Amino acid sequence: MVSYLIYIGVAIGLFAFAATFALFAVYYERKLSAFIQDRIGPSETGKYGSLQTLADILKLIQKEIINPTATDKWLYALAPAIIFIAVYMGFAALPWAPGLVPSKINIGLYYIFAIISIETLGILMAGWGSNNKYSILGAMRSAAQIISYEIPAGFALIAVVVICGSLDLQEIAMQQGILFKEHTQFLGIWDVTGMGGFMSWNIFRAPHLIIAFIIYFIASLAESNRAPFDIPEAESELVAGFHTEYTGMRFGLIFLAEYSMMFLVSMVGVVLFLGAWNTPFPNIGSIHLANWTTGIGWGIFWIFVKTLLLVTVQIWIRWTLPRLRVDQLMDLCWKVLTPLAFICMVISAVWRVWVMN
Amino acid sequence: MSAANILFYIMSFIALASAGYVAVSKNLVRSVFIFFVTLFALAGLYVLALADFVAVTQIVVYVGGILVLILFAFMLSGRETLNVLQHPDRSVWKITNLPALLIVALLFIVLINVILKTDADHLGWISDSIKTKNYITNSGDMTGNIGVNLMTRYLLPFEIISILLMMALVGAAHLSRKESVE
């Protein structure tokens, strides 16, 4: 009985985390965008405007949920829940620290990849259920974009999986630090076994993985519908894309899903490329920096800081780059990223057989 | 009844009920979305049968790929076409339907026969493999086992399927190519 209570507790904890993160990420994004555009941003509510998003969410909860008459009631009402649950279920398999993972499954990465693809279905549901031309155009753009960019993202991930030889995220995380007992090399030339630190992270285990990481990062921007890939909700053309008709907490759920997705894809990137919960400091001679900064508390700290850094880069890109046109978007995906990702995967296989042995 | 049993019955019920709705519903788009529930419940049944890799593949292929493609087909076709499809002549007992009714009835008899004849608890090949120790337990290494088997024992079928898919890809690319203007 106690174990079931623990399961439920973990699930509620993850939901609370996703909600709190979204709350503060919105504030963070507004402040950062204000900085980039040389404004002040929210400043009235609370110290430095820090209570602004809390006030916003209170307003959203109180709002009336409007049901437009021409919608397909069921699809319209369920779509936001499906979009959010798809992202939220992905959190179950992410490792937080040595030995600390909500659900230790040996196909963790594959599971996350599958669960995220359900979001597309939720978006199509929202677009069709709204019975509005802007919504349906936005939904179709979004689905086309997510399906296309899943391919380079998937192959970039496979490039890492081939090097690591595992789909278990905890195993992949463990291989990138001092806890890994086997032979580790920095870029295939310098033996860093037992040194740990940033030199044993996956991104530096082979030179082509740096390219794979960039491919994954670009594709992850597209998968979370973030600028410069936000044509599904391009304000100037489609009002608000697939969530034009939504109000109140239903809109809130879609918003929550977008910010949770940002965190999720960043965290997957960190786990696979940037050393997961491993410390960036190496052991140098008798100064065992890596040993001192490894542990459950440190693990949570490092993975959180690294993920927040990636989220920061996502926000920075959104407020710096203009939106891509549809054809440019597809050209980038199919003519640049997909072939590069394929090449990365082939190099990975060769690397695994000839360099790592 | 153990928790696994209860889960099995819940998920089978969801799968059957949603499949029934898919078949009966007059709203085509809605039945596509309910089909998603069927597939998800099936994935849950696979997990119960310790086939977690198959379950996740089911979600990737069917939900992420095929369902979305079906929906695309819907959204690209006009509302009039859909309306015609949604209000067909629904009377079943007609002379033109006789072949279909016959096939359905025969298939139903065959299925009932199979269910009655199969002694699911004492299947010959299962007891044989238990006797010869030719089975794996839930050691958490199911995926690795699938990979090794695909690359050794079942390499030829695997390669043939990949060539088939490659041909489909090339064909699709050729069909969708713009004709060069001369």
From TrEMBL, chain B:
<protein>
    <recommendedName>
        <fullName>NADH-quinone oxidoreductase subunit J</fullName>
        <ecNumber>7.1.1.-</ecNumber>
    </recommendedName>
</protein>
<keyword id="KW-1003">Cell membrane</keyword>
<dbReference type="Pfam" id="PF00499">
    <property type="entry name" value="Oxidored_q3"/>
</dbReference>
<comment type="similarity">
    <text>Belongs to the complex I subunit 6 family.</text>
</comment>
<dbReference type="InterPro" id="IPR042106">
    <property type="entry name" value="Nuo/plastoQ_OxRdtase_6_NuoJ"/>
</dbReference>
<keyword id="KW-0520">NAD</keyword>
<keyword id="KW-1133">Transmembrane helix</keyword>
<dbReference type="GO" id="GO:0005886">
    <property type="term" value="C:plasma membrane"/>
</dbReference>
<feature type="transmembrane region" description="Helical">
    <location>
        <begin position="31"/>
        <end position="49"/>
    </location>
</feature>
<dbReference type="GO" id="GO:0048038">
    <property type="term" value="F:quinone binding"/>
</dbReference>
<comment type="function">
    <text>NDH-1 shuttles electrons from NADH, via FMN and iron-sulfur (Fe-S) centers, to quinones in the respiratory chain. Couples the redox reaction to proton translocation (for every two electrons transferred, four hydrogen ions are translocated across the cytoplasmic membrane), and thus conserves the redox energy in a proton gradient.</text>
</comment>
<feature type="transmembrane region" description="Helical">
    <location>
        <begin position="6"/>
        <end position="24"/>
    </location>
</feature>
<feature type="transmembrane region" description="Helical">
    <location>
        <begin position="55"/>
        <end position="77"/>
    </location>
</feature>
<dbReference type="InterPro" id="IPR001457">
    <property type="entry name" value="NADH_UbQ/plastoQ_OxRdtase_su6"/>
</dbReference>
<keyword id="KW-0812">Transmembrane</keyword>
<keyword id="KW-0874">Quinone</keyword>
<feature type="transmembrane region" description="Helical">
    <location>
        <begin position="98"/>
        <end position="116"/>
    </location>
</feature>
<feature type="transmembrane region" description="Helical">
    <location>
        <begin position="154"/>
        <end position="175"/>
    </location>
</feature>
<keyword id="KW-0472">Membrane</keyword>
<dbReference type="GO" id="GO:0008137">
    <property type="term" value="F:NADH dehydrogenase (ubiquinone) activity"/>
</dbReference>
